[in-house]
Amino acid sequence: MSVRHAIFALIICSIWGVNFTVMKIGLMQIDPYLFGFLRFSIVFLLLLPWLKIVPGMMIKLFLLGNLIGGFQFALVFLAMDMTNHVSAMSVVVQLNIPITLIMAHFFLFERMSYWRTSGVLISFLGVLIITLEPEILEEGIVILIVVGATTMYSIGVIMMRKMASINVFQTQAWVAFFSVPIFFIMTLIFESGQIEQVLNIDLIGILMVLYTSILASIVGYGGINYLLKLYPVTLISPFMVSVPIFATIGSVTFLNEILSVKFILGALVTLVGLGIIHYRDWQLKRHLKVISNEGA
Q1: In whole angstroms, what is the distance from residue 19 CA to residue 90 CA?
Q2: Cα Dmax for the chain
Q3: pLDDT beyond 70 at 285
Q4: Would you say 79 and 168 are in contact if contact means Cβ atoms under 8 Å apart?
Q5: Among 79, 57, 217, residue whose Cα is nearest residue 142
Q6: Is the confidence at residue 295, as pLDDT, over 60?
């Protein structure tokens, strides 16, 4: 991978990492479901040119839009609104990697090697260490909400592996299309004073909504899709380990979070587990490439 593309991958990870802090700051002014409605409305309007019917795929896109769009993000925004430990939640979210591997083992028949299994177990152990922190343990319901959202996302990833032929912007456009009415209904039912909140939002709040809509959603996913067209998944995935690092830097810098020794230990254990998973994938890819070259 070129240095330029490696830097670009890190920029994307920093965007996604800081996005946890951005969501928290934005949710200080706007209710979570209203925040989701604004975010996906902006994404939908910007990606409207890509909203085209995909024959034979509309039911799958509908299910995907609900899984990784409306309902998944409804849980994410609710959890970020409730939590006082943004950095911890950013680590818990990374469970999507081992959860996806487990689901792929059972539903896509992708065999789990001893390396991957050990990486999954270590990742869960790291998250367990973090959640046993007394202050974080008090937010047990928030952790369960984040795990629920992560599981939905993992199911969505399994679905997307069978929908690889659809353009990423086209997928995002339909996800936004199906998410907007979900958030609209939820904010009407569970929240109030929406007009007042929108009218009273200040520049910081506006920037937070634009950040999570344009940078985190469109630039982030669009950028990763661009890199995946140039490089294998196993070369891009290791960069994702840096997301909670950037999230922690953002929460400490802008939210004045204090990191405990137990959190740092748990985060390191989780990152080691994810690193094992990614390293093994990279090693296998490299081995297959060598065999392919020798065969040629």
Answers
A1: 10
A2: 67
A3: no
A4: no
A5: 79
A6: no
Residues shown for the chain? 296
Amino acid 85: pLDDT: 82
d(CA 144, CA 176): 25
End-to-end CA distance of the chain: 23
Residue with more model confidence, 149 or 228: 149
Half-sphere exposure of 5 (CA within 13 A, CB side): 14
Contact between 112 and 105 under an 8 Å Cβ cutoff? The reply is yes
| DSSP secondary structure letters along 142-181 | HHHHHHHHHHHHHHHHHHHTT-TTS-HHHHHHHHHHHHHH
- Radius of gyration (C-alpha) of the chain in whole angstroms: 19
Please state, as a whole number, how many other Cβ atoms lie within 10 Å of the Cβ of residue 179. Answer: 26
pLDDT at 153 over 60: yes
What are the tens digits of pLDDT across the range 192-208? 999 999 999 999 999 99
Distance CA 225, CA 171 (A): 12
Residue type, 283: Q
Q: Global pTM?
A: 0.79
Q: What does the alpha-carbon distance between residue 77 and residue 286 come to, in Å, rounded to a whole number?
A: 39
Token match 């990279």: residue? 282
Tell me the pLDDT tens digit for each residue of 57-88.
888 889 888 888 888 889 999 999 988 888 77
CA distance 168 to 220: 11
Domain ranges of the chain: 3-295
User: Tokens 């974080």, residue?
Assistant: 136
